[in-house]
Amino acid sequence: MSINIESHQNEKRIFKPAKEFSRKARIGSMAQYQAMYDESIQRPDKFWAREAADLTWNTKWLKVLEWNPPFARWFVGGKLNISENCLDRHLQGPRRNKAAIIWEGEPGEKRTLTYQQLHREVCRFANVLKRQKLRKGDRVIIYMPMIPEAAIAMLACARIGLTHSVVFGGFSADSIRDRIADCGAVAVITADGGYRRGSIVPLKKNVDDALQGGTSTVKRVVVFRRTGQDIHIEEGRDVWWHREMEYVDAQCPPVPLDSEHPLFILYTSGSTGKPKGILHTTAGYLLGAYITCKYVFDLRDEDVYWCTADVGWVTGHSYVVYGPLAMGATTLMYEGAPNSPDNGRFWKIIEDYAVTILYTAPTAIRAFIKWGDEWPKKYDLSSLRLLGTVGEPINPEAWMWFHTVIGGGRCPIVDTWWQTETGGHMITPLPGATPTTPGTATRPFFGVDAAVVDDDGNEVPPNVGGKLVIRRPWPSMLRSIWGDKARYKKTYWSEVAGCYFAGDGAVRDKQGNFWIIGRIDDVLNVAGHRLGTAEVESALVSHEAVAEAAVVGRPDELKGQAVVCFVTVKQGVAATKELAAALKKHVRSAIGPVATPDDIRFAEALPKTRSGKIMRRLLKEIAGGQTVTGDTTTLEDFSILAKLGASPDE
Ligand code: 7RM
Q1: Distance 416 CA to ligand 1 centre (A)
Q2: How much distance in Å is there from the Cα of 522 to the middle of ligand 1?
Q3: Domain 527-642, what fold?
Q4: How far is Cα 161 from Cα 254, in angstroms, rounded to an integer?
Q5: What are the structural domain ranges in the chain?
Q6: What number of H helices and E strands is found in the chain?
């Protein structure tokens, strides 16, 4: 397999961490990174044992790793509790009265929970769950808005050994029903509703619909009152959170749990229609979330850290809740949309709380670019010291905008590549050490043996595209797909013998930096030339008129596949035939004739999942002139489907 990476090779800008930043950072030079990386690969047991000693254990492990490919057990024989690691151990010293969670609701309410207060709420809610006869190993669905109670529910489950499965608040009743059925959940924790872009999401109503028919395994629904709207209460099944919390003990000792005790199941889409329940366990997952917060965000007690992800995604699990709290950090949670009440909301939050670290998604950054620089310019962003991105390849234009307009040119950017399956960052810069270049996630994190290989599993030379694989287990790796070991084996460990196959294509340059091209299934074959859709997209958004672009293949008799581009333009730009012609020329000159778009289709918006991933399957069907079929439950705005107009050429 080969991927055209000319446009990447042309990117020569290098940004070195400022001396001042490096001096204070835990890892302050590439030499230090390299020495630690080498140790993590050559003497993994020693490396991981040392890092794991940062955690609070009830029983020390006997063996760091037991590897029966493709099944791993980490810290075998050890026992710990994640909620104890995130809460109790911070109560002994000065963190006791430090803000653990700073929260802002979309309508504007503000709440701060100190470590002591959060600990108390988690203990009380864990006792509520115990009283509902929930027992260690039971599965519990959490379907909540972005409110502190979502984190409280997760930590309370973890405290007593319940396995949680958070379902994103934007998912439908059908998705909830499927997930309940797949994991055999016995309880649901939800809210009456949540706020999103000024309207109310009917969470409880969706749960009611999911449970309709009465055949569900769910026996109990706990409802938090967020909006106060009228909801149905099913007698004998539903209870109010606040009622249950009225008369409950605040003492709840954390249960020591086996290192491999199932912590959570998180559903993620695969190549088939049925989402996969990615299973993460206790000690290895915690260590992965913890150690990446420690070295990648270089989190400090003084930081005000904001990861904008929803807890319904893995990023919310590892980098809103578990990682930062295990570090004893202050984590900010915001309930709503970035354009509510206006396009300046994020920047206002950063100014109001003096946020120091901002971790967000390229898709959000491109929206901000489209909305215009006047919004961030209204606010004081000088508190920021570090920026991060995740979720998709970041195009150099978005990177540069983030760097200059938001980071004021002084903040390093960590472009972190990882997946639901990996639990934590895998390929990422370390902010005090790694020189960065827009578009590359740079180097593997400690213990990550990443490589780019061909179809036979042989490592390819520099600047040649291939499959991104991980050649050995790592602590926060998924342990299986819930209830389907065969699918786990087949999906992740069969494509390339002996390796974990990530599903992404990548290129490694001569300096050893990884450039993630995107999902392998997003690679086109145009007249025998393979072309990453992300590359064409990057070329398109480098044009001054373009806000966002998604590129898909359309079957073509002559070329195999034709390149179809869905494009949204920046405010004030007219979507004309002339512009379409100019964009074709632009892509052609950026990448080469093979990449010349066949169709440019202007759209008001692109169809995206609620986590911001463009739904390429829908676009492929639209591009191919088919009607849209299959699962569209993750689509954020259904009206977009109707609006995806025809090509101006037609
Ligand atoms: C954390 C998360 C995983 C997929 C992954 C990639 C893409 C994520 C980056 C990225 C390029 C990045 N989990 N991806 N981060 N591609 N650079 N920094 O997103 O399971 O929802 O998605 O996202 O394709 O395979 S996820």
Answers
A1: 8
A2: 13
A3: GMP Synthetase; Chain A, domain 3 (3.30.300)
A4: 9
A5: 527-642
A6: 22, 30
